[in-house]
Structures
1.
Amino acid sequence: MDSNLIIVCIIILCTSIFIYGIKNFEDLKKWIDRKKEKKIFKFIYVVFFILAFIVLSILIYKNIIKIINIYKSYNFSKENEAMYSYYDEKIKQENEFYKEVIKKEYNPNNCKNPYIPEDFEYVEGEWNTGFVIQDENKNQFVWIPCSNIENEEIVKLEKQNFENPAFISKDLCSDTEYEDFITSTLENGGFYISRFEIGKEENKPVSKLGVNLWKDVTRDEATEIINSMYESNKFSCKLINGLAYDTALNWLKKTTNLEFADIIFNEDLEPLSGRNKQNNIYDLLDNVFELTSEESYDTVIIRGTINDEEYKDRNRYSILKTENYFTNDINVLTFRAILYK
């Protein structure tokens, strides 16, 4: 018999007995008084009604909890549906914008003539081998030349659809401040990426060699930290997005031989920036995992890969949107900045 039907029958039976006992209390009392063992009958009757009341209360309580859970589940489903609809529309708009802007004509020579933002200076490298600039505090950034058309020296500004353990594709990812970045990058022939994963120096974010990495932060905290690096309104400095990460990684793959290296630590066993360099960019592919501004519905996206040839192209991972955005598989999680005007 169905468990719900049994519960209903028990509730009806207990309720009927309880109501009958209340309505006919005097008759029951007279009947008990006629018995020789008055005390025994009274005791049995009281115990029965107590047990019936307890059982009835438990059953009612359980069903109330069940109704509450059903209501919560319904509301949760509605919230999920609203969330999915919001992100589906957001991703659709981003994809449509990208498809339209990528069709326009841009001057390819802009890639070969990197602009230098206000208060920055040239350090070393050529436009196609790692053009490095730094600010007055020695924070360094590297030029990533890219356009809407790929050739022998220049990669296309695009997000890749990697095979990966998280099954996150480019069509399921949304990015913050996506349109400004695309427009600036295509018009200027590229963007800058922090030469190093962001470190902490006197409690300030830096892009420097050999400093302790700024780790163990949430994606929102990383965004705020990057936003605090500069106050200038002449350029934007943001947490790296998926489009920038993929484009930079493709440029490295196209122009140099990627090699893996082990993480390096200081004497306090803290991971340091600047271990493995390709085209003047350190540790984009290896070292530690990096947060990005990407989202896939209710998850954030992190980047990085495994020091293993078999997994060298698995460069996008998802991680649940918990308080610290960590899982047991990720020991060190940091982040990187991009700069564009």
Note: Helices lie at 3-23, 25-33, 38-101, 178-188, 219-227, 242-255.
2.
Amino acid sequence: MTAASELNSEDSSTKTKKRELNAAKYVLRLEAEAISTLADHIDGTFAHAIKILHNIEGRIIVTGMGKSGHIARKIAATLSSTGSPAQYVHPGEASHGDLGMITDEDAVIALSNSGETNELRDLLEYTRRFSIPLIAITGRTESTLGEMADTVILLPDVPEGCPMGLAPTTSTTASLAIGDAIAVALLEVNGFSANDFRVLHPGGKLGSSLLRVSDLMHRGPSMPIVKPAALMSETILEMTSKSLGCVGIVDSGKLIGIVTDGDLRRHINSDMRKVTAGEIMTGAPATIRVHALAGEAIAMMNEKSITNLFVIDDDQGALVGVLHIHDCLRAGLV
């Protein structure tokens, strides 16, 4: 290959890469424009849809065909994981018996950019026959889907990202964003809390990050505690039997101090037969609320360079447990 042909080949390769990058940027900007347009045009129809979905007794049925079907599955999963029970129903299968999955206590969200998806017709007619609320996510209000629906969330008039303007790209991204908006709006209306989220996400790092101190702490007979008047022989025995490296000093149900391994070492030359726990304890020990997230406890232990935190009832201030850093390690939080 001559030097000139090599140079031409490099120029061609550079042009190809530039064309590919420009195509990618074009699609991303179109999709960003579509979502931005959606945000600017959220109005009463969206609020009406949320009211419908909040008031139903049953499930939210999400349906769509082809690429819209894939988006519908994801929307149903997001709704379910944020406290709004939802289910995807395939419109083709619905015509062959799966309509039985939809009851008159449910509501249906149907996705179709054109609003003329043939496979949806039987399902749509079923909702009209049994007065099941129907919410349309579509690009055309004057379509079969748009005209049959109780309320229409209109997709923005932004072209698809492919050069032919045919492959669902911008429309599916906008539909997915609308689904997320619906899920979060319902989450707010339903008062869905972090604790509710943890109940539905017990697995993996996400579930672990939402564990509370009350889920991990030692309580009742497992707590190493003595009274201020306890002799050190009793205190050491309590510390050894509970294997947490400390003892809480409790008076009238309230934590007033702590004796740690370090406190014992500092008083090793004292006459342990005569010394009481109250005499060598460290007062005002670090504590944490029983309903605090475990991650907060880890941060506090790291900041104070300690390995234990006594746990206090949020309302009464009474001692209810003790948390060791090893409890957090076993839960996979450290």
Note: Residues 3-192 form a domain with the Rossmann fold fold (CATH 3.40.50.10490).
3.
Amino acid sequence: MDLGIRGRTAIVCAASKGLGKGCAQALAAEGVDLVINARGAEALEVVAADLRGRHGVRVTTVVGDVTKGEVRERLLAACPTPDILVNNVGGPPPGDFRNWSREDWIKALDANMLTPIDLIKATVDGMIARRFGRIVNITSSAVRQPIDHLGLSNGARAGLTGFVAGLARKTVRHNVTINALLPGPFDTDRIRSTSVVLAREQGKTPDQVMAERAQQNPAGRFGTIEEFGAACAFLCSAHAGYITGCNLLLDGGAYPGTL
């Protein structure tokens, strides 16, 4: 299926590994030119070289922490008129809310709510003027089903989701959509780091926790970044103009609800 976005340009944040990398790979496979960002220069350049070599697309790298204003400025300078924006920022650490300070909460909100909103603000009017835009926010399954030890993430990502719910209804008539992908358990560094915390609490090894979590999922496994990237690419496609303000859950059936 031709997604109809060959020759478009996308910004993909946190694209050197994990879910962001999966999204960058899927978009490049569709012929989308990329501006990709991550904190680690070496890993980011490896991804960029691979995408250029395999798909023949233009790939520009912007190294730095996207939660920092000056990094966002450089990102937008490298791609001032994106057709596609994939917001992705690593989640805050797990823990007990009793141990979190006001500064911890502000940091989580700045990273997982305010940073994506700032990038949306900087790009959405241009998309409206050009009558094409696809914005995808990578959030978390915790938006649908809160995870007790990820309270910082629960709160910040739910805030972003609430904001987008209103804006997405205003932009869609201009062929600009805003949606979210809600990942459940995927085989990434993030799930491995949270497994270390859970292992310590449960008196198990991280590998034991990982294996148990995989088997507890209805799919009997974790998701792959390729599966995630394919979902992102479709939401960014020319065929997805009637989908907006939606939160697509990718969790192997873990969420127990009917809706």
Note: Strands lie at 9-12, 33-38, 59-63, 84-87, 133-138, 176-183, 247-250.
4.
Amino acid sequence: MATGIGSVPFQDIEGTCREISRWAPAMPFWPQFVQRSHLEDMIIQYSEGLPLIKVNAEERSLSISRLDVREAELVTFYERFLAQDVDAFAVSREVAPGLYAFLEMMKEDKGDGGLYIKGQTVGPVTFTAGVKDPKGKPILYDPELSEAMTKGLAIKALWQVRKLAGSGRRPVIFLDEPYLSGFGSAFSPVQRHEVVAMLGMIINYLREHCEALIGIHCCGNTDWSMVLETAPDIVNFDAVEYMDHFLLYKDSVVRFIEAGGAIAWGIVPTANFTGQESVDSLFSRLKEGLMRLRQWGLDMDQVAQRSLLTPACGMGTMTGDAANSAMTLLSRLSERCGDWDM
């Protein structure tokens, strides 16, 4: 089945929600209108209710506010977190109008629909790497703040999952981690065990408190064995640019699938979309990856049941026409795969 990453270039909130339901009926997703407002930027959109956060509108960024109130704000935060005051960590309509319009549309949907509904949140590594302390250093390297923000994102994700569950479908939530594209470089000195611990903290929290399926999305190259070690239900990668890199991790991928994991193939280009792509060309590229899994001895029926199709990354930087074309291609490719006799 097909679904999306989140960000879109459009301005028409209700109209976009209707189009998404048409493009991805089995697993529709709520849209993030990143060209509409700085409040819908990835890290800003999920910052409400987190301690010490200051929004810098002109720079479209976040930073830590006054250090003299650090202890008091952290105490208040943990009181709410430990009391499981989920509503204190809500995502408001102001920062996510697409979420509210999407849920309202889903309530009115009288059709058969599908079994799933997808949401997304910024991942903890990307979030803490993007928030600077008063000295300009990312709070990713401040263990106390990093842990608090990760727990805050976990309970915010739980709030979102409960809202999505109101649709009657099973929620799927992706942790978006573009920062992991730089993992292992001199510009990203975070350690493997730290990444695994942070992602694991959110995954385990959600599994303890809800029945959502949890995915991890990274649109660049990374250490995929590290990502798979966190044991998400779904891993989403850019199959246009990085399929060969992903498939270097044979043992990890095989273990992941055999343990029940699913792969979301980011098969439609976004940043490098040309308009010359076709269902046949995308299908051929997808088939290359699936045949590699067959060569590894995996059962193709099982792999097909545990595969999703997505754009390579979010569509927020595309033109509206290109995004429309990309999602139409994705929808048609999904239909083509449904007719494929493997």
Note: The first strand starts at residue 7 and ends at 8.
